[in-house]
Structure formats: C-alpha cells, structure tokens
Design brief:
It contains seven helices and 13 strands. By secondary structure, it is α+β, with helices and mostly antiparallel strands. It folds into three domains: 49 residues; 153 residues, Glucose Permease (Domain IIA), CATH 2.70.70; 134 residues, no CATH class. The protein has an eight-stranded antiparallel β-sheet with strand order 9-5-6-7-11-3-2-12, with no helix packed on it.
C-alpha cells in the first residue's frame, strides 16, 4: 500500500472504477469509449491527493476538508458546522490540529446513507468531532453518491486511522468515495472564523486558539489546488468564447460563397502574415475580461487556452467528420484552400491569452502573479 501522502494513494480506492473504464474502452464502441474516458477523467479529478499546506502558527486551526459552509451554529461551548464537498473538491480529510483519535463510530442520522463520527482529543485535552457523510438519494448535497457507488462499494467512507492513533496537523485520515458532506464540531476556544456560504480548501486557516484574526485577502497561490476555488460562473462565462466560435464557424460555412472573415485584418501594417490580426486581438480582449472578473484563475485560464489551441490543431489537421461545416468546410470550387479551414492553432494565441489575463488582473487588483 502506498503512503497516505503519495499522489497515487487515493486512486487505489477507485481501482474498480478504473478497471471498469478500461473494459468500456476496450469494447471499442464510440459510446462505451466515451463513457470510459469520462470515468477516468472523473476519477483523476475526484481522487487527486495533492496537498500544499500554507505557512501557519502553532495555535492556528486548519480546515479538515475542502468544502463550502452550509450552516454554522453555536450550541453551548461547541461550534457546529455543516459543509458540502462539490465534485471538483478534493475528497479526503486531514487533521485540523495535532490530536489523538479517541473513538470511531458508524452511526446514521436522519437523511444519512452513511456516516462515520470520529472523536478526537487535541494535545491540550480539548475534544472535537469530525463526521464524513454520504446522504441518501434526494436528501441533501451529493445525492448521486448515495446510490450509484453503492452498487460497487459497500462502504464509501474510508478511514485510514484507528482508535489511539496520534495525528499531526495536516495528516490525512480518511476519504469519501462520492456523495460528500462533512460536519465539524469544534470547541469555542478554537475561535473558528468560518462564514456561511464561503468556500474553504484543505489546510486553509479557519481558526486560532489565541483569537487572532484569520481572514485574509483571497489570492491565487501557484502551488495551491488548481480548480478547487474556481467558481461555477467562471466556467459559464468562459464558455461564451467557444460557443461564439462554434456559431461563427457554422455561419461561415453556411455563407461560404459571400462571407468575408471580419477578423482577418492586420493590426499593424502587413502584420496578418505574422499572425497578428483581429483574431489575436479577440483572444487578448477576452482574456482581459476573464482576468478582470476572475483575477485568481490565472493558471486554469492559461491551461484552458492551451487546451483550446490543441483542439484547434487537431481539427485543422484531422478534420473530424462531426465538426465538418463548423470549423472547416469544402470550398465551393472544390479546391483545397487554407482559407476554408479556420480552426488551426497559432503559437501567438497562448501568448496573447496570458498577456490579456495579466492585463485584466492588474487592472482589477494591481498585481500580476500572486
């Protein structure tokens, strides 16, 4: 068995899905191959095991999961927090402080398909509880995990620790195989500063035993998780450009005899032959917008831009039948002209994307890389 901190460790607990994916791809039908590839990508994202803890003080309390706070209640000397783990979140748990595992129990509450309650004691004798949860179908977030994976796994909550174990702050102690929520119950002495509706990543500082302020300006750290804090509306706004390109490609093919590309013009004298044209300007301006609206998404934005260029290269070279009439179409004269293939990659585009994003980010927050 791999060490808990090994990047491949969590994938062992999804090996059945990976085997199923290989079988589906091996069948060779387009439909089964598509499902197989989708499952592999899903597992690679869902079970990733990367962790880069921030610099912290001895008295800091860190987030034991990557999740969104759904509810917070103060009851007596305890702070109770309910959270939800989205599909793009890392689905393993870590210790928020140095502590000892006192008790592990599997006990269902209303609406639960599965729940494990872990009782901990920190080095000062304070007790707290952490509970990974799988909800029943149509009972709370993570509804798919409450029945789909039950067909394959008897237990979807996996616990790495045992009673009596001593855990260091940030040490992994369990994971959830889909269908994910978590409850925390901390002593009020932890001075938890979480807020309802906020998103926290593994290792974020959420409290401090001395009561120090832990709220910091949100910044993108180059070694932090790539997609965890990317908001849903980022993907919606980011999809605008490819949708427009698809529609514009269809329009060009539908009017190929009379249509002239409005973006094929030189920005400078004869610069079009060097790739410096209206299309390059459109890349720059779109990424200026993305950098201004979402300044903490530089890495994922650059990567998505590169993936789009790879997609365009593939379309331009191999001309897949399913995209005929959108990214390329036959010349009315039957001649093979490059002008009738408008999906092809340019090395200038990723540079324009990056510069555009940096420009937008700088206008918004006055900094570039952090």
């Amino acid at each position: 068995m791999l060490d808990k901190s090994n990047l491949l460790h969590n994938y062992w607990y999804a090996k059945e899905i990976l085997v199923l994916s290989v079988i589906l791809i091996g069948i060779g039908l387009n439909f089964t191959m598509g499902i197989g590839l989708f499952l592999i990508i899903m597992v690679l994202i869902f079970f990733r095991n990367n962790l880069n803890l921030k610099e912290m003080k001895y008295e800091d309390i860190i987030s034991p999961s990557s999740s969104e706070v759904m509810d917070i209640k103060i009851e007596g000397d305890k702070t109770k927090i309910s959270t939800y783990l989205a599909p793009i979140d890392r689905h393993y748990m870590i210790s928020p402080v140095d502590c000892r595992v006192k008790k592990i129990e599997r006990r269902l509450l209303e609406g639960d398909a599965e729940r494990v309650i872990i009782h901990f004691e920190d080095m000062k004798g304070n007790d707290f509880m952490l509970s990974p949860i799988v909800k029943k179908l149509f009972n709370g977030p993570g509804l798919l995990g409450s029945w789909v994976l039950k067909l394959m796994y008897e237990k979807r909550i996996v616990i790495f620790c045992k009673e009596g174990d001593i855990l260091k702050r940030g040490e992994r102690w369990g994971l959830i195989r889909f269908g994910s929520a978590m409850d925390y119950e901390f002593p009020n002495s932890y001075n938890i500063r979480m807020e309802k509706g906020d998103k926290y990543s593994l290792g974020d500082i959420i409290g401090n035993e001395k009561g120090n302020n832990v709220k910091k300006e949100e910044r993108e750290e180059m070694l932090s998780d790539l997609i965890e804090k990317v908001p849903l509306n980022y993907w919606l706004v980011g999809s605008i450009a490819p949708i427009i390109v698809f529609f514009y490609g269809w329009y060009r093919c539908s009017h190929i005899k009379e249509h002239k590309d409005i973006l094929e013009f030189s920005l400078l004298k004869n610069s079009k032959k060097y790739g410096v044209d209206g299309w390059l300007l459109s890349h720059y301006l779109f990424f200026v917008m993305m950098g201004f609206i979402y300044p903490n998404t530089l890495r994922i934005s650059v990567i998505m831009g590169l993936l789009w260029e790879i997609f365009e290269w593939y379309c331009g070279v191999y001309k897949p039948k399913c995209l005929e009439g959108i990214g390329f179409c036959k010349s009315p004269s039957g001649a093979k002209q490059r002008g009738k293939v408008w999906w092809y990659w340019k090395w200038q585009d990723p540079i324009a994307n990056t510069l555009g994003f940096i420009t937008g980010k700088y206008i918004r927050v006055g900094r570039v890389l952090s």
